[in-house]
Amino acid sequence: ESQNGRKPLKASEATRISHSWRALPDLAKEAVERHCSVVEWPAGAMSEEAKENVLHGEHDVGVTTQDYEGARVRLCDPLRVAAEVVDGIQPLNKFRRLYWGVFLGSLSGSSPDQWVEQLKEQRQQYKKMNATHQELLKPGALTGLDPNVFHPLSNAAHNPWLVRHKNEELMAEIWKDIERTFAERELFQSDSVRKSLQRILFNWSKEHEDISYRQGMNELLGVIYVVCFRDQYRQSEGTSKAHTVCSQLCCGSE
After folding, report:
1. Entry pTM
2. Of the candidates 227, 215, 182, 1, which has an alpha carbon nearest to the alpha carbon of residue 92?
């Protein structure tokens, strides 16, 4: 038996898992090991608030509360989790967002009730951040400034006009990549989805100006967006609402 008391894996299964494990970047391996835990949700054990908020917010669409009954999120075996991540987590599709949230560090702990509070706080934080960074991009936002103090042609570092110009350049740079992001997929042909991705990357860049935007970040965000979108989508609700839900809860855009 292994050190954790489990029976040894069959040779074929062990080979597949070890190959999957090696295929993961070191950062993903560390994340799996760091968040190794088991979450059991036996029928009736979750609070009503957790059922309504863990995978979707107050106005979100997605799986129903009945889907949570008797469910299990298994993060106790890093090798098995790695294999499921590489294979697409097929047996646990409705929990893909939870896996990603844990692996990327946005969700911590092993209690669904903890995740509820974390998600609520993250939504509020993003709303405030988005409002701050999008303000200078609004048409007419600078028309009330005194030109004797803030001249549009001034090169002063903190001149709002110069800051706005740099912001517009950043938005344009991001948009060029967004237009090419998984362009063959119908989801990413939607103008609202593209603008959502653009805002997310812009806001992230403003929060991390020492790094700012780099080509390729659009591809990473696109993958996460798809994961979030699929978990939110419900055929009867229509795509426009699903886009909004995915942006507000999973990706954070307004």
Report:
1. 0.56
2. 227
